[in-house]
């Protein structure tokens, strides 16, 4: 069998950022992205760091708010209302998960849909469903973007999505359908999961379980998109998933953990192309957030 192609998310993201940098320079004003980060979620902290860096590179103003984790829903609604009314704020992102006492649904619905760079507001969710151009969730948008830029056709393809979260599974399914794939969505109640995944020409996995999709669940020659971000902290797991990966073992020795997606690396070998973790879909998420911020900035000013 021929070697699978590695779909390089980091390189694709760099390409997108370079394009956006030119667009921002041509705008004649500085777009602003506001991020509200509450609490200590490590995934969120990584995300915020990468965002600040990308904003600097592109010439976008990054506004960071870190209110106290004991705030109430009303406190956060006041913060969101203020950001909605600020003319120097084009994009608003409220980092999830929110503290337990905060009503997430009310907060997401309070964000001005035209500033909703996460694409989580019900109006934007609805527009995506009916195929209207709108702000769409960053990770799913990144998945479609890397397929497109890698020359992988979706029209008529058997696409199988594993996972149905509002953040990844559902919107990526909506986008694949919009891109004319024949769509199957699997989840925790799916019977005979492998029978579905084995039919996929394009398999997108977003479940949050380390190496869950194994080689026997994949059709030879399929394209694998691994959205999962998981951490292995047990040496035996590192040995099982990465028996011949010297770099992973080195990282584990140094840091006590390694990152792995939802797909067993052994399954990549039977694919025709796959997105690695890290350096795949995750890298694109940030680039698409920048894309959405520029899009929102133009939209608000009636620019195309
Ligand atoms: N790369 C990136 O930029 C991003 C990566 N992620 C990562 O993607 C992964 C998924 O995130 P998210 O969508 O938020 O996760 P959620 O936990 O919200 O959803 C997980 C989904 O997977 C389904 N599922 C769980 N176990 C199985 C199983 N054994 N068989 C079939 N389906 C299963 C669940 O089914 P059910 O609905 O029935 O419970 C659910 O729909 C995580 O690892 C997360 O860290 C997330 C966001 C961005
Ligand atoms: N409102 C909201 N929107 C989100 O989109 C959102 C969120 N809340 N809460 C947290 C999760 C997590 N998330 C990540 C995005 C990119 C990387 C990323 O850049 N990953 C790199 C590695 C980064 C590194 O390890 O340095 C990669 O996979 O290659 C990681 C995680 C977005 N999320
Ligand atoms: Mg997102």
Q: Your description of this structure?
A:
The protein has 304 residues and is an alpha/beta fold. The protein has 2 domains: 27-113, Rossmann fold (3-Layer(aba) Sandwich); 138-284, NAD(P)-binding Rossmann-like Domain (Rossmann fold). The protein contains 12 helices and 11 strands. It has helices spanning 9-25, 42-58, 73-85, 104-110, 122-129, 138-149, 169-178, 193-197, 235-241, 246-255, 265-268, 281-300, and strands at 5-6, 32-36, 61-65, 91-94, 158-162, 182-186, 202-205, 223-226, 230-232, 258-260, 273-274. Helix 6 (138-149) packs across helix 7 (169-178). The longest helix is centred in the last third of the chain and has 20 residues, at 281-300. It is globular, with a radius of gyration of 20 Å. 44% of the residues are buried. The model has no long low-confidence stretch (mean pLDDT 96). It binds NADPH dihydro-nicotinamide-adenine-dinucleotide phosphate (NDP), 5,10-Methenyltetrahydrofolate and magnesium ion. 5,10-Methenyltetrahydrofolate (GUE) is lined by residues 43-44, 46-47, 50, 93-96, 118, 138, 229, 277-279, 282-283, 285-286. Homodimer. Keywords: Amino-acid biosynthesis, Histidine biosynthesis, Hydrolase, Methionine biosynthesis, Multifunctional enzyme, NADP, One-carbon metabolism, Oxidoreductase, Purine biosynthesis.
């Amino acid at each position: 069998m021929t070697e699978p192609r590695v779909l390089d998310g980091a390189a694709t993201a760099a390409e997108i950022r370079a394009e956006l940098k030119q667009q921002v320079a041509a705008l004649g004003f500085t777009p602003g992205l506001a991020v509200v980060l509450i609490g200590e979620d490590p995934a969120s902290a990584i995300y915020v760091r990468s965002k600040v860096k990308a904003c600097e590179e592109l010439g976008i103003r990054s506004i960071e708010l870190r209110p106290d984790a004991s705030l109430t829903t009303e406190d956060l609604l006041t913060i969101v209302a203020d950001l909605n009314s600020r003319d120097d704020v084009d994009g608003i992102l409220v980092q999830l998960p929110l503290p337990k006492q905060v009503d997430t649904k009310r907060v997401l619905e309070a964000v001005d849909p035209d500033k909703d760079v996460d694409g989580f507001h019900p109006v934007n969710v609805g527009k995506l469903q009916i195929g209207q151009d709108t702000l769409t969730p960053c990770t799913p948008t990144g998945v479609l973007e890397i397929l497109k830029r890698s020359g992988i056709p979706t029209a008529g393809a058997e696409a199988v999505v594993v996972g149905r979260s509002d953040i990844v599974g559902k919107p990526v399914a909506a986008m694949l359908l919009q891109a004319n794939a024949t769509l199957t969505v699997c989840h925790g109640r799916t019977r005979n999961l492998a029978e579905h995944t084995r039919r996929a020409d394009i398999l997108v996995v977003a479940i949050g379980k380390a190496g869950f999709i194994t080689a026997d669940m994949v059709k030879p020659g399929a394209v694998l998109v691994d959205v999962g971000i998981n951490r292995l902290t047990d040496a035996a797991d590192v040995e099982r998933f990465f028996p011949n990966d010297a770099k992973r073992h080195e990282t584990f020795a140094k840091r006590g953990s390694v990152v792995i997606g939802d797909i067993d690396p052994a399954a990549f070998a039977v694919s025709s192309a796959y997105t690695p973790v890290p350096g795949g879909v995750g890298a694109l998420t940030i680039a698409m957030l920048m894309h959405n911020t520029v899009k929102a900035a133009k939209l608000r000013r009636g620019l195309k």
